[in-house]
What we know:
Layout: E1 4-6, E2 11-16, E3 20-26, E4 30-36, E5 41-47, H1 66-80, E6 88-93, H2 112-126, E7 131-136, E8 142-147, E9 152-156, E10 163-164
Parallel strand pairs: 1-3, 6-7
Antiparallel strand pairs: 2-5, 3-8, 4-5, 4-6, 8-9, 9-10
Helix pairs in contact: 1-2
Amino acid sequence: MSEIIKVGMADLKTCVSPNGVTTLGLGSCVGIAIRDPQTKIGGLAHIMLPDSKAMRNGQLNVAKFADTGIEELVRQMERLGAMRRRMVAKIAGGATMFPFQGQGSSMNVGQVGDRNVEATKAKLKELKIPIIAQDTGKNYGRTVIFYPETGDYVIRAVGRAESVI
């Protein structure tokens, strides 16, 4: 019997078919789903921020950042038997959730979604993992479910039809 494993915010999990992984509340956050189609090993990272380099304390949550979270997800998948050269990715999220974002805010929060998507794409390119589908940007949050067995990445958003990428 298959299980759907929950991934929290600033979290990541791996699974093996027929299990799947899900995360709720992708606003400006990005959900990175990676799979090895041959072994059907997959994983999902729910990243909140693009880059860990600004963090100075030693208590780094690697799953919180695109640069460290994606690397850790790939490492965990390789430990399960996946091979990086076969991995493919799908991404979702990176929305601009509030209309005031980007309007001169001192925190520049309006750009967080865009920066998360850019950082995710850059890290996957660096790791030579192609992005084969995406549903990013716009102005609404998403809930996602990823099935490594088929590669289906189900995207749900309030008031919108469910889609599969």
